[in-house]
Input
Amino acid sequence: DIDGLRAIAVLPVVLYHAGVPGFSGGYIGVDIFFVISGYLIGKILLDELAAGRFSIVRFYERRARRILPALIVLLAVVSIFALIFLNPNELRRFAASLVATATFTSNFYFLATSGYFDLGADQHPLLHTWSLAIEEQFYLVFPLLLLALRNKTDRVRQMVFGGLFVASLVTAQFMVAERPDAAFYLIVSRGWELLTGVLLAAAAPARVDSQRVAAFACWVGIAAIALAVVTFDATTPVPGLMALIPVLGCALLIRYGKSSNLVTQLLRAKVLVFIGLISYSLYLWHFPAIVLLKVKTVGGATALPIALAVAASGLVAYASWRWVEQPFRHRQRVRTRTVWVLSLIH
Output
C-alpha cells in the first residue's frame, strides 16, 4: 500500500507538469512524498534505535545508495541535452542549477532566481530537484536529533517531534502570507510535512476494532488528496494550513493502510505498486523531458508531443529503476566503497 501511495503522489505531479486539465493542484504530490519519506525513514531509524543498531554512517550509506545513482545518471544525460538545446544564457543558468542540485541546495538557488509558479519557471530542467534538497537537508539534521534523544523515552521523543511539527507549521503559515516563495522552498516551512511521517512512525500501531472505521478513514484520506489535486492551484497558500488537507489525508492512508477495504485494495493494485516502485526515477526524468521539449519546440509544445515525452520518461524511469537503482541498493552487488567513491564524485 505504501508503493501504491507513492503512485498516488507521483502521478498528479507528472500530470500537473504536463498541463493536463483537472490537475491544477497536482504539485501537492510532493507534500505526500514528504510524509511517506518521513514515515519510512523515521520507522527504520526508530526501530534501529530501539534495537541498539542505530548508526549515522550506515544511514547515510543507505541514503547514498537510494538517491545518488539515479540522480547522477539524470544529471549527466540532461547536461548533454542542455548543451545541445539551450542557448548560452540558458546554459549558464542550467550550469548554476546543476551545481546546486549536485550539492542538494537547489531549493536555495531557485528561491533566489525563480518562484515555482512564476512565468517561465518551467524553463528550468532541474527545477523539480528542490524537493530532493529539502529531504536531504532534513536528513542531515534528523539522525543527529535522534542521536541526541537516544537515551530518552518514547514519550519524550514524541513530544519533541510534536513540538517541532507545530513550530514548523506555524512558521509555514506565517511565511505563506509574508514570503510565499520562501515558504515553498525552505526546510523550516516544509519540515512539518516530513515530521508528520515521523510522528506516524513514532506512534503506537493503530488499533481499530471496526473495519468500517478503518475504511471510513481511508476514504477520507483519499478524498482529501483528490480534493487538493483538483481544487488547489498556484494561488493556494501552501505549505501553510491548507496543506494539512493532503498531508493528513496521506497520514490517514498510512495509518490505516494495513486494513482491508476498497481503498487499500486499490493502493495494492499491481499497476499502482509498479508505478510506486519506479516513482523516484519517474519523478526525476519526467520534468526535464517536458522542459527540454518546450525549449526545443518553436511556438510551444502541443498535447501530443508532451504526452509522448511523458511516456518516454516512463520508459526511461523503468530502465533507471531496473538497471541503476536496484543494483546499488544491495551490498552484495555494489560494495560500500563504491558507494562512497560515487558520493565523492557526485
About this structure: The two ends are 33 Å apart (CA to CA). The chain has 16 helices and no strands. The chain has a mean pLDDT of 92.
